[in-house]
# Entry
Amino acid sequence: MATNIKKIAVFTSGGDSPGMNAAIRAVVRTCAYMKVECVAIYRGYDGMIDGDFKPMNARSVNNIINKGGTILKSARCEEFRTAEGRQKAHEQLKKEGVDAFVVIGGDGSFTGALTFNKEFDFPVIGIPGTIDNDIFGTTYTLGFDTALNTVVDAIDKIRDTASSHNRLFFVEVMGRDVGHIALNVGVGAGAEEILIPEENLGLERLLDSLKRSKKSGKSSSIVVVAEGDKIGKNVFELKEYVEEHLPIYDVRVSVLGHMQRGGAPSCFDRVLASRMGVRAVEALLEGKTNLMVGIQDNKIILTPIAQAIKGHTKIDKELIRVSDIMTT
Ligand code: ADP
# Structure
């Protein structure tokens, strides 16, 4: 279906992730290629309400594909949660002559976009940017692959010092509700145990496993813990618990924190961002709306945003089995 879309806005919103810049670049360049105008919005919905816009052309996005973070800044905006705030945002977009937008963010940003569409019949397409990989409708979100590489790199370094001192390390990684990062880096970095929100290993089994690991002659042990794991103790409490019950271990804790969100995007994330950005603009120009761009079986697909924000991504059971076998 041909549309009357002449100007598309792009912005980043919510938690940032590596690859957002590559996605901005892809949206801007696709607009240039398709000969539609493009405008960037700074600071997410905050900037939309304030009219913080900047016209973009193909050259505005030179040399950003390799940069972490987002050149457009990201923000959390309480005002956009109110009807008055969204009304102001709509007036700003109308004033600027914007006909549609591409939002790069997580499920909160998508919920806002969907509400905005319902109120103003405004075309919106989402690109999933979050390191947690917790959005339904895509096997990979933007930034997940980069975060895995960053965390594996950090754990490799921790292992160097752990094995020099025969230490046990609890390494806490991001993942309040889902264990995708923990499970993947746990396998990738050869962790002895992986604690994720989806499965409660139980304290007894953790102790048994650590005892076995010590007996089998391992010189160091790494336990990867997702922030939201359900074992009932945080990493510092776990350290105390293990030291009390297994005094043979010299235990240390490392909380990786926000470094997991930074860094230059991996090649995988750059390619994914480019593909998603192209599809997002194409979808708008085909008259589509309320859809999220995702990837499945290496094909770029579109999923209704309503499903993407309601659905849950499942942890890969096969990977859990592989992890169990590898820790023998
Ligand atoms: P993420 O997009 O990473 O999940 P948030 O949940 O913080 O991040 O959402 C980003 C922004 O999206 C919020 O600050 C708010 O402006 C907007 N938003 C989130 N939920 C809603 C909602 N239910 N209605 C309107 N806007 C929302």
User: Anything to note?
Assistant: Residues 20 and 327 are 35 Å apart (CA to CA). The radius of gyration is 22 Å. The pocket of adenosine-5'-diphosphate is lined by residues 13-15, 45, 76-77, 80-81, 105-109, 111-112, 115, 130 (CB under 6 Å). The mean pLDDT is 95.
